[in-house]
Design brief:
The chain has about 170 residues and is mainly alpha-helical. The protein is built from eleven helices and two strands. It has a two-stranded antiparallel ribbon with strand order 1-2. A hairpin with a 5-residue loop joins β1 and β2. α2 runs antiparallel to α10 and α6 crosses α7. The longest helix is centred in the N-terminal third of the chain and has 21 residues. It is elongated and about 55 Å long. The two termini are about 25 Å apart.
Length: about 170
């Protein structure tokens, strides 16, 4: 998988990705075909992409910190939940807790996560390349394709599958 120009290609293919994703949400047979392919495409992408070399997600996005995440992380850091929220989090326009700063305050210099074992569920699931979220949340997927080379790689393969005949 050529990743040298993935950012340029992801930008150039945004319309094609959007068309395919929207079409899959209107065509059950296409959706099933793409969903069936996701686990293998996810594994293939992550066999070639090392998140610790990239960490663009942690440098550019904030996950949502849901109450169970806040509780778990605060306990892990031996802080009160209110302290964790006031020190690291803010409410976004949708009413979700997100990090006050980017990159993520829990991202270490070597791109590891200081709270990896207790990280928010959004982090554990990102970039959703093995979930139906990839197909159903079109705008999120298009945004992720510009940040995450694995999302781009999976979408490129889905384009091939989606354009092939049954």
């Amino acid at each position: 998988m050529a990743l040298e120009n993935w950012e340029k290609e992801a930008k150039e293919h945004q319309k094609a990705y959007k068309y395919m994703l929207e079409k899959s949400n209107k065509t059950k047979s296409l959706q099933n075909k793409l969903l069936d392919a996701l686990p293998d495409l996810h594994e293939e992408a992550f066999s070639k992409i090392n998140c610790l070399e990239c960490a663009r997600c942690c440098k550019n996005h904030s996950p949502r910190f849901k109450q169970p995440d806040i509780k778990r992380i605060a306990k892990s850091l031996r802080m009160k939940e209110g302290e964790l929220v006031s020190q690291y989090l803010k409410l976004d326009e949708e009413g979700d807790y997100v990090t006050k700063t980017t990159p993520c305050p829990f991202l270490a210099e070597d791109n590891t996560c200081n709270i990896y074992e207790d990280r928010p569920s959004d982090c554990a699931r990102y970039p959703y390349t093995d979930e139906d979220v990839l197909l159903k949340r079109v705008q999120l997927t298009l945004k992720n394709a510009m940040v995450c080379p694995a999302t781009h790689a999976v979408l490129e393969q889905l384009l091939l599958i989606g354009s092939s005949r049954p």
